């Protein structure tokens, strides 16, 4: 055969094993990285499923961004309200771990990249099936990491469709991942225990001089992960620690100073909230209940109701969260009682007066309405809500994702959804 650069016998062709010269590649390195990913990706999948359940996706059609999820929604459960930091912890782990694993994923793909170029493409049916599953595995991994990072960094670049993409992608990816893990984990563990390199198609037949040891390479990957971790994890804390989150989104959205100095997602200006709509004269909260019973309440009316306090965080799907803030306002279940639901309050649909941007309404479950810490907050940390945090009134619910804590509330409709 002519030795054209692309023929497998030419050392200049990626289809030739001799083309891949790094002396680092081999079963040990691939196995170490694989075992780290085995644990890490399992945790990512589980925290991802849990996070999805936290949205109350079955409160259709308001919250549900994946209407055709079918049996993939089999596990959905009523998201609890305790412990109040549940979503904060879960989502913090999901996003921080996902970002931290990026160098490990890239190193793992690098360590096996020669296999991509194996010829012939399929030696047998079984081999063909294995390669297709690898396509789903690698494609799925890249897809999930890329959509996750884009969502965290760019805030819904795919209008309204991040949820179905990331949700279905997770199932495809994880199915391929399970197959791969079942097939490869026993061998990976053997490779780790033996430590000595056996012959393997991963080992270059034509290795270049090493410039770094395998352990050195591993330290390099670990160092990359540590760097990402260190520049991300701070977004889960207030104060100076948040400033260490160099990679976190909203790095520029300065929360300012004073009692309301905690992270802001969308500002009042962004959401098109005008003072003319929120001042004492203009703003009324409309509460609708049993048999259409309706109450129209000014902020003064709300202040005349029993006020309660709760220390609760804001925790966003993007992976940032605040520590507990002191919210003060009217209990959601007291509002339900006002319109005919004295005992056993039902679900509620909350609508914002916001006109701009994607977010307008969110639904809460009966168990969330019933919790005595679930408030229509009027104050935070001892002062009136600021416009950016939702003045005149916002929802705050324990353990719920931030997106359910509607700001600038205009209307609440109680009833089973
Ligand atoms: N009306 C309205 N409410 C909203 C939002 C919004 O864009 N508009 N963003 C939600 C999201 S995604 C989060 S994380 C929290 C953030 O609250 P904060 O800006 O007070 O920190 O508000 C929620 N409430
Ligand atoms: Mo959010």
UniProtKB/TrEMBL annotation:
Species, as recorded: Streptomyces curacoi
InterPro entries reported in the protein's UniProt record: Mopterin_OxRdtase_euk (IPR008335), OxRdtase_Mopterin-bd_dom (IPR000572), OxRdtase_Mopterin-bd_sf (IPR036374)
Residue stretches spanning the membrane: 28-55, 92-113, 134-153, 165-183
Keyword terms: Membrane, Transmembrane, Transmembrane helix
A Pfam entry, by short name: Oxidored_molyb
Keyword rRNA processing: no
Name of the featured protein: Oxidoreductase molybdopterin-binding domain-containing protein
Keyword Nucleus applies: no
Superkingdom of the organism of origin: Bacteria
Domain annotation Oxidoreductase molybdopterin-binding: ranges: 278-414
Gene Ontology molecular function, alphabetical: oxidoreductase activity
Coiled-coil region: none
